[in-house]
Design brief:
Layout (H helix, E strand, L loop, with lengths): L1 H15 L2 H7 L4 H15 L4 E3 L4 E3 L1 H26 L7 E7 L1 H18 L3 E7 L13 E5 L8 E6 L4 E5 L1 H7 L13 E6 L2 E3 L1 E5 L5 E5 L2 E5 L2 H9 L4 E5 H10 L3 E2 L5 E2 L4 E5 L7 H18 L5
Parallel strand pairs: 3-4, 3-5, 8-12, 8-13
Antiparallel strand pairs: 1-2, 5-16, 6-16, 7-13, 7-14, 8-9, 10-11, 10-15
Helix pairs in contact: 1-2, 1-3, 1-4, 2-3, 5-7, 5-8
Amino acid sequence: MKSLQDLDIFVRTVDSGSLSATARALDLTPAAASAALKRLEAELGVALFVRSTRSLRLTQEGALFLEHCRPALAALQQVQGQLAGGRAGGFRGTLQLAAPSDLGRNVLLPWLDAFQTEHPGIDIRLQLADRVANVYSEPVDAAFRYGKPQDSSLVALPLAADHRRVLCAAPAYLAAHGMPETPHALAAHEGLCFMLGEDVHDRWRFWDASGQEVVVRARSRNVANDGDVVRRWAVLGRGIAYKSYFDVADDLAAGRLVPLCPGWTTEAVPLFLVAPSRRQFTPLVHVLRDFVAGRLQALMERAPR
């Protein structure tokens, strides 16, 4: 389908910023790729790119077309794959995902490998960063995000609504410094804190059995803007961390980290799959969401109570 390939060339060119790179990826000549873009522009009656000898830049019309083209192309490619495969799960296309670094490296990576084994026609482009991905301007179909989005225009599918943080430390740290029995005792311990931008997350919230909130200011010599670094520091015995349970589930199961202050309720950090519009939630994204949500639920059943 030439028209479908033309749309694919357009989206790939936007993402790579290079028509020649798109041509190489699709095993086309640069002239054939350029002709595809010209056909699209002729059909639409507008210029999609401002071209120079060194760069391509979307026009205002091109940006508007991209907003609608990307989800439509993904849906069409998936249907095409199902028709060609002639079987359930015969998806084809590219999933562009963003996720926090810790969740991506330690939880999602093996699951995405398993997902591709079930759906071999799927390519995955994964962006890992602890900054919040801009799903409007970045080439992302959906983003894994902790906490319900403040932006009401975003669409969020719940993945783990009951997920919480866990206070934890390595056995070596506890042997050297003792185990805090309540959050109040944290003032005498080394905290390991995460930083987003210039905001250090050093105010840790807990609730006792009666529902009374306690806010503790963590004393932190070690602060990082990468959640996985905080986890690694904790495993090395450098201090106490207040981490999302998913990020440290394997460490807790293996005994590398120990949960602290049982009986206290920790902060809720629900996990969502986020996109700028419902059009982004193609059948493939829904299949991925169900795949991941099922595994997260199984992981939650091992969480400390």
